[in-house]
Structures are given as C-alpha cells and as structure tokens.
Design brief:
With 205 residues, this protein is mainly beta. It has one domain: Porin, CATH 2.40.160. The strands form two sheets. Strands 1-4-5-8-9-11-12-15 form an eight-stranded antiparallel beta barrel. A hairpin with a 4-residue loop joins strand 4 and strand 5. The chain is elongated and about 65 Å long.
C-alpha cells in the first residue's frame, strides 16, 4: 500500500510540474531572425536571369496547438532586389514572401528543441521596373507575373538561454518563381527558390 501511495504521489507531482511548466511558457512564441537569402536563380528564358542575394530581417509568430505540433507564420517587409540578365542589371523589383508552416517539435520541454516544418509560401512581386533600354517600339518590353505560390520545407532548433528566452537557428527551402513575358508572350519561367538560413532569438509566453 505504501508503494502504491508513493507511486501515485510521484505521478501527481510529475503531472503538476508539467502543467506548471506549460502554463508558465504559454502557447505563443515570437522570434526575430537575421536571414541570409541565397537564390537558386534558375530560368528557362536563356537570358541567365538572377536576383541578388542578401540578408533580410524576419519575424515569425508561432502557436503551439499541442506540445509537439505548432503553426508558424513568417513575415517580413517587401524586400528590394536587383534583377540581372547574364550578370548585367536590367531592372529592380520587390518581393513580399509570407509563409505559413505546420511544425513538429521533437523535444518540446527540453533545453534543446529541434523541429521540422512543411508549409505554403505566397510571394507578391511589386514595384517591378525594367531598364528603359528594354522598353519601347521594337524592344523586348519584358514583364512578369506578380504572384507566386509554392511549398516550403524547414528544419531548425530552439535552445533555451534564459527563462522564456531561446536562441533559434532555422533553415528553409522555399519555392518562389514567376513567368517571364516579352511583348505579352511567355518567354520562360524564372525560379528564385531561395535557401534561407536564419539565426535569431525567440520569446515564449
């Protein structure tokens, strides 16, 4: 009887401790990252199209549906890029790429908390401007689609560094692309498909 009472007491204490930890941290997490954007730059136009790589700021908002499963929304502001053909600048554009992912967290209460994610990306291309030498009678008059939809895959980890505070490392591969037109006729496809490597901090509440 004493062993049974002791076992029940241990189980009750463990449940109470887990509930207290869950209540203390909460279901929400906000992270801020510096992200290196490395574009794949693949196109079928034959022009050798590319956009420049850069480091961009990123904020994500994560909600833990269960201790292991979370939904993450990644946000930034429109990012400006130079558009090049064969290494020569032919214009500029901005892209806004919010991504919504469903994540699985392997060790949700550990100090080291790895996760994987699968998501959907929507990218809006705006302020697309081509060099004046390409536009006019008898010229290419290029244009692109303004919207892109694609998948994203993700792997990362949160490392607890203080109460409610975490160091985050995150790697994503995202499908981003557009159709390219010349005088209204499709000339090919341009795939940015960036690899995004980010480092930042997170706060859970």
């Amino acid at each position: 009887m004493n062993k049974l009472a002791t076992s029940l007491a241990v189980i009750a204490l463990a449940c109470t401790t887990f509930a207290a930890q869950a209540q203390q941290e909460g279901n929400w997490m906000v992270r801020a990252r510096a992200v290196n954007l490395d574009s794949a730059n693949k196109d079928t136009t034959g022009l050798g199209l590319s956009v420049n790589n850069k480091v961009i700021p990123e904020v994500d908002i994560t909600y833990f549906i269960t201790p292991n499963i979370a939904a993450e929304l990644i946000l930034t502001y429109p990012q400006g890029h130079d558009l090049k053909a064969g290494g020569a600048k032919i214009g500029t554009l901005k892209h806004l790429p919010p991504t919504l992912s469903l994540q699985y967290h392997f060790i949700p209460t550990g100090t080291f908390r790895p996760y994987v994610g699968l998501g959907v990306n929507y990218t809006n291309f705006s302020d697309v401007k081509f060099d004046a030498s390409l536009e006019g009678a008898g010229k290419l008059n290029p244009s692109i689609d303004n919207n892109s939809f694609g998948l994203s895959v993700q792997v990362g980890a949160d490392v607890q560094i203080a109460k409610n505070w975490y160091l985050n490392v995150d790697v994503k591969k995202v499908q981003i692309g557009t159709k390219v037109y010349s005088n209204g006729v499709k000339a090919g496809d341009f795939k940015v498909d960036p690899l995004l490597v980010g480092v930042g901090v997170g706060y859970r509440f």
